[in-house]
């Protein structure tokens, strides 16, 4: 799933290409927006809020999208071949005289009033990549449920926005935290600081890296490495699902570097 840094990079590219440009054609391929036409308006700016992407258009309208598992926005020059996926996967096309922005596989795509953006992002906690990141509030949010696992707390976008499964697993490893450790047993300020440090370090990279080695197969300590030896101690990396049913988040951890009782049922 794309995380906050991926969305931030996409917003920066889209903003550089489209901000201040007039939309000469728009094509929304979802039933709720099938008759919507924003041509003739200017695209004011494109901003990220956690994992949400907000395209603000003149006239007080915002195009709100969310990538979820595999959505994406691609930029092409007029006449250039589109390569982001099959035709039936296209959900939106925004065209200016110089660029064509094509949204693929967007599970969330809607129009909201710009002055009512809080209706779609107001529930989010402090954005880790925002220059105005409020660490004190993020820490307080995480500590508000001390019995919750650190894994679930970090992934809850209401606590702090932007963290996904890659950063959650890597932060837990780097701090020696078992995925099922309760929030009350964790140095929460340290977890928040490391999460922000990793995301900021990767924000301009095409790949997410926590090891300092940007090569295929060497970018993570435990993420997506089940059954492989820990890079520190050679203990076999374990994996299990975490979260409330249906348990749909995968945890990876080293039993030696992240010691604790095993998760229920294991």
TrEMBL record:
CDD domains: AcNei2_N (cd08971)
Name of a matching Pfam family: H2TH
Domain FPG-type, residue spans: 221-259
EC id: 4.2.99.18
BP GO annotations: base-excision repair
Signal peptide: none
One MF term in the entry's GO annotations: oxidized pyrimidine nucleobase lesion DNA N-glycosylase activity
PROSITE patterns xref list: FPG_CAT, ZF_FPG_2
Keywords linked to the UniProt accession: DNA damage, DNA repair, DNA-binding, Endonuclease, Glycosidase, Hydrolase, Lyase, Metal-binding, Multifunctional enzyme, Nuclease, Zinc, Zinc-finger
Domain Formamidopyrimidine-DNA glycosylase catalytic: 2-75
Similarity comment text for this entry: Belongs to the FPG family.
Protein name: DNA-(apurinic or apyrimidinic site) lyase
Originating species: Kribbella sandramycini
